[in-house]
Specification:
This is DUF2490 domain-containing protein. By secondary structure, the protein is mainly beta. The chain has 1 helix and 11 strands. It has an 11-stranded mixed barrel with strand order 1-2-3-4-5-6-7-8-9-10-11.
Length: 225
C-alpha cells in the first residue's frame, strides 16, 4: 500500500512541476465524450468524440472521432478493434509551418484491470495503423501506446483519476509523445460520470498544457428480459 501511495504521489507531484514548463504561451483545452454501450453479455460498442483547442475556447486544433467493437473476455479483460477519423488544423500562429491534415486510423487494443486495496488499476495496450493525408501527399505510419491509469474512489460520488501514457513510433525516432494527466471525477448517475483535470502533453522539444473536460456516458443497450 505504501508503494502504491508513493506512485500516486510521484505522478501528481510531477504533474504539478511540469505545469510550470510550458512549450506555448496559451493554455489549450480538450472537450471529450466517451461511451461504452453493452449490446450483449460479451460485446459492447465504444464511441468517442474529442474537440481540441489551442486555447481554452478558441483557435481550433483537432477533431477526433473514434469507434470500436469491444469483446469482454471477462470483467477485467477487454479486447477492442476500432477506427478513428482525425482532422487537424495546424494554422495556429505559433506553428506557422504546420498545415491542415486528415487521418484515418485503425487500432487494436487490449485492457487489463486489477484492484489493490481501494486503488483501481487499468493497463491499456494499443497498436495503431495511421493513414495520413497532408498537402495532397499520403503516408502510412505505425505506433504503439501504453497507458497506466489509477483511479481512487473518494466517496460514492467523487473520485481521483491519474494516468501516464507513452507513445512509441514504430518507424523513425522511437519516442512520439508522453501524456501525464490528473483529474477529479464525479459520478452523476450509475451510467454517467464527468471528469475535469489537467494534461501535460510532452513531445521532443515541446510541452503543451491542456485543460480536459470529459463526459462518460455508458447506458446498457441490451434488451431487458
Amino acid at each position: 500500500m505504501r508503494r502504491i501511495l508513493c506512485i500516486i504521489s510521484i505522478l501528481i507531484t510531477t504533474t504539478a512541476i511540469n505545469a510550470q514548463e510550458t512549450g506555448e504561451d496559451n493554455w489549450g483545452a480538450w472537450y471529450m465524450y466517451f461511451g461504452t454501450n453493452k449490446v450483449s453479455d460479451k460485446l459492447s460498442i465504444h464511441t468517442e468524440a474529442q474537440f481540441r483547442y489551442y486555447e481554452t475556447t478558441s483557435n481550433f486544433n483537432q477533431l477526433l472521432l473514434r469507434t470500436g467493437l469491444n469483446y469482454h473476455i471477462n470483467p477485467d479483460a477487454i479486447a477492442t478493434l476500432g477506427y478513428g477519423y482525425i482532422t487537424t488544423d495546424g494554422s495556429f500562429d505559433e506553428l506557422p509551418n504546420e498545415e491542415n491534415s486528415k487521418e484515418h486510423r485503425v487500432f487494436e487494443q487490449f485492457i487489463l484491470k486489477n484492484k489493490v486495496g481501494e486503488f483501481l488499476f487499468e493497463h491499456r495496450y494499443r497498436l495503431e495503423q495511421r493513414f495520413l493525408e497532408n498537402s495532397g501527399e499520403t503516408d502510412t505510419q505505425h505506433r504503439a501506446r501504453y497507458r497506466l491509469q489509477v483511479t481512487l474512489p473518494l466517496t460514492d460520488i467523487f473520485f481521483l483519476n491519474v494516468y501516464d501514457e507513452v507513445f512509441i513510433n514504430l518507424q523513425d525516432d522511437a519516442f512520439g509523445q508522453n501524456r501525464l494527466y490528473g483529474a477529479l471525477g464525479v459520478n452523476v448517475t450509475e451510467n454517467l460520470a464527468v471528469q475535469a483535470g489537467y494534461l501535460k502533453n510532452h513531445f521532443s522539444g515541446a510541452n503543451y498544457d491542456r485543460i480536459q473536460v470529459g463526459v462518460f456516458y455508458s447506458p446498457d443497450l441490451r434488451k431487458k428480459k
